[in-house]
Amino acid sequence: MPNYLIQASYSKQGISDLISNPQDRSAIVKSVIEGLGGTMNSFFFAFGDYDAVLIAELPDNVTAAALAMAVGSTPGLSEYKTTVLMTSQEAIEAMQKASGVGYKSPSG
Predict the structure, then answer these.
(1) Is 70 exceeded by the pLDDT of residue 108?
(2) N or C: which end of the chain has fewer CB within 10 A?
(3) Domains present along the chain, CATH in parentheses
(4) Ramachandran angles phi, psi of 41, nearest 5°
């Protein structure tokens, strides 16, 4: 199953709600991911550019997009970003495939 890095930021209202009602959002997110046939490998609260960061396995890009639409459209979040991750072996396969693509730069 493909792996995804998911980064999210809470809106001002979302943060206010968490302060008023502290809760473990990882359990809720894990349940949603499992309901889509995936696995949540890690979940971290963070501070900086994003408030929550997680790694999940999902069946495919369509499922990852559905999760992004469902979760990212809620008023509790102000930002939601998904990055498709590759294993080292997949990256090596891509490198090997790239050598035979035949693309030439306009400058040479």
Answers:
(1) no
(2) C
(3) 3-98 (3.30.70.920)
(4) -85, -30
**Mean pLDDT value across residues 26-53:** 96
Q: Is 56 helix (H, G, I), strand (E, B) or coil?
A: strand
Closest CA to 41 of 90, 71, 68, 3: 3
- Nearest-Å Rg of the Cα atoms of the chain is 17
CA distance 99 to 72: 37
**How big is the CA angle at 5 (ends 98 and 75), to the nearest 5 degrees?**
135
Q: Is 84 helix (H, G, I), strand (E, B) or coil?
A: strand
Give bridge partners of residue 39 from the DSSP assignment: 57
Tokens found for residue 13: 């209202």
Q: What is the pLDDT of residue 98?
A: 93
pLDDT higher than 80, residue 44 = yes
d(CA 18, CA 9): 13
Two structure tokens written together for 68:
């992004």
Judge if pTM exceeds 0.85: yes
